[in-house]
Amino acid sequence: MASDQVVGAHLPELGLDLVVLGLVYHVRIDGGRVEVAISLTSPTCPVAGQIVDEARRAIEALPGVDRAEVELTFDPPWTPERIPPTVRAALGL
């Protein structure tokens, strides 16, 4: 599934993937086209473009995917509450 493939994209400062951090907001699959909306922990992330590209490449590597579009959004703003409780506890949050 495309949302699972986004796991390949990591936040460099934490070394954790986008799914685990609750940064995948939306996945839409229409035939071979996949649209994903993701957020980041900060709107000032200096590697935002790199993360979006990494997520797009990971999704396009899936069988049957012809095109992936990854949109970066900050609406709603990400908060640590989007991280599953067990992961939050491991991170000390």
Compose a concise summary of this entry.
The chain has 93 residues and is α+β, with helices and mostly antiparallel strands.
Verbal overview:
The relative contact order is 0.22. The longest helix is centred in the middle third of the chain and has 13 residues, at 48-60. The protein starts with a helix and ends with a helix. The strands form two sheets. It has a three-stranded mixed β-sheet with strand order 3-4-5, covered by helices on one side. The chain has a two-stranded antiparallel ribbon with strand order 1-2. It is 26% helix and 25% strand. By secondary structure, the protein is α+β, with helices and mostly antiparallel strands.
Specify the overall morphology: globular
Question: How far apart lie the N and C ends?
Answer: 29 Å
Proportion of strand residues: 15-25%
Strand order of the largest sheet: 3-4-5
Poorly predicted ranges (pLDDT <50, ≥5 residues)?
1-5
Helix content: 25-40%
What's the helix count? 3
Q: Kindly name the structural category.
A: alpha+beta
* Radius of gyration from CA coordinates: 13 Å
Number of strands: 5
- Give the overall pLDDT as a whole number: 84
